[in-house]
C-alpha cells in the first residue's frame, strides 16, 4: 500500500521552507539583509539553534550569504542568469537594445494584463505608491527618476503573480541599471521626454487601478514603443553629431 508514516516536521525545515518561499515570490530581494539572529528567531517563533540550522542549509543552497561583521543577506541569485560573455556581447551591439525593448514590450504587456486581473488590493496600493513617487519628481535628479521608473515597472511584475516572469525580468532590469542596454537616466534629462513618460506611466497605472486588462497591456505596449522611438532618435542624433564633429575637424584643418 502506498502509505507512509507521518513524521513531525523539524522546525529548521519549516524555517527553510518559509525563507525559500519569500525569496521565490520576490518578497525578499537579492542583496537584502535579514534581521539579526535574535530578532529573526523571535519573529519566527523558533529557537536560535533551529534558526542557525536553517540559515546554514540556505547558505549551502546558495540562497543566503554571510558577510563578516555585516550579517546575513539574500544572495545575488540573479547574477547567473546571463554569462559575462553574453552580457558584454549585448552591450557591444545596438541590435540587442531593440531586441531588449521588444522583449520587454511582449512580457511586460502580458504581466500588466495579468496584474489587472490577479492583483490584490495591496498589490494595487504598491503600484499606486510607486507611481505617486514618480509623479512628485521635479526633474533635478535623473538618476532617482530612473530608479523610480524601474521600481514602478517591477511592482507591476510582482503583481502579476508569476514568479518565473518576476525573477527573469528582475535580471533584465539589473542589466539595464548597469547600462548594458541603454542609459535610462539620459532619457529623463530631456524635458519633453520626461513629461511624455510620466503621462504614459499614468495611463498604465489608471488602467491597472481600474482593473482593465486589455487597456493595461495596451498602455504598456504604447509606452515601450515610445521608448524604442526615443532610442532610435537618440542614436540618429548621436550619429549626426559625430559626423558634424568630423566635418568641423576636417574644415578646421584647411
In short:
This protein has 254 residues and is mainly α.
Helix and strand layout, with pairings?
Layout: H1 11-24, H2 37-44, H3 48-60, E1 64-67, E2 71-74, H4 84-92, H5 94-118, H6 121-135, H7 142-159, H8 163-177, H9 184-188, H10 191-209, H11 213-252
Antiparallel strand pairs: 1-2
Helix pairs in contact: 1-3, 4-5, 5-7, 5-10, 5-11, 6-7, 6-10, 7-8, 10-11
Percentage of residues in helical conformation: over 70%
Number of E strands:
2
- Write down the overall geometry: globular
Low-pLDDT runs of 5+ residues are none
Task: Please identify the structural class as seen in this structure.
Answer: mainly alpha
End-to-end gap? 96 Å
The arrangement of helices and strands along the chain is HHHEEHHHHHHHH
Order of adjacent strands in the largest pleated sheet: 1-2
Annotation field: number of helices: 11
Mean pLDDT: 86
Oligomeric state of the chains present here = single chain
Report the major sheet.
2 strands, antiparallel
The Cα radius of gyration reads: 23 Å
What percent of residues are in strands?
Answer: under 5%
Amino acid at each position: 500500500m502506498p502509505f507512509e508514516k507521518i513524521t513531525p516536521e523539524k522546525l529548521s525545515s519549516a524555517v527553510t521552507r518559509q525563507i525559500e518561499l519569500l525569496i521565490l515570490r520576490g518578497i525578499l530581494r537579492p542583496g537584502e539583509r535579514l534581521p539579526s539572529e535574535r530578532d529573526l528567531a523571535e519573529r519566527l517563533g523558533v529557537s536560535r539553534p533551529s534558526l542557525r540550522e536553517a540559515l546554514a542549509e540556505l547558505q549551502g543552497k546558495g540562497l543566503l550569504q554571510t558577510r563578516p561583521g555585516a550579517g546575513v543577506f539574500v544572495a545575488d541569485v540573479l547574477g547567473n542568469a546571463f554569462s559575462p560573455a553574453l552580457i558584454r556581447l549585448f552591450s557591444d551591439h545596438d541590435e540587442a537594445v531593440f531586441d531588449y525593448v521588444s522583449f520587454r514590450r511582449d512580457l511586460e504587456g502580458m504581466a500588466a494584463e495579468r496584474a489587472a486581473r490577479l492583483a490584490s488590493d495591496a498589490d494595487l496600493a504598491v503600484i499606486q505608491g510607486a507611481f505617486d513617487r514618480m509623479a512628485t519628481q521635479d526633474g533635478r535628479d535623473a538618476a532617482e527618476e530612473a530608479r523610480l521608473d524601474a521600481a514602478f515597472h517591477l511592482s507591476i511584475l510582482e503583481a502579476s503573480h508569476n514568479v518565473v516572469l518576476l525573477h527573469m525580468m528582475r535580471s533584465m532590469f539589473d542589466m539595464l541599471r548597469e547600462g548594458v542596454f541603454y542609459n535610462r537616466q539620459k532619457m529623463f534629462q530631456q524635458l519633453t521626454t520626461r513629461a511624455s513618460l510620466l503621462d504614459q506611466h499614468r495611463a498604465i497605472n489608471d488602467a491597472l487601478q481600474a482593473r482593465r486588462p486589455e487597456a493595461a497591456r495596451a498602455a504598456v505596449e504604447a509606452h515601450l514603443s515610445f521608448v524604442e522611438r526615443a532610442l532610435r532618435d537618440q542614436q540618429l542624433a548621436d550619429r549626426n553629431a559625430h559626423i558634424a564633429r568630423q566635418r568641423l575637424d576636417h574644415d578646421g584643418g584647411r
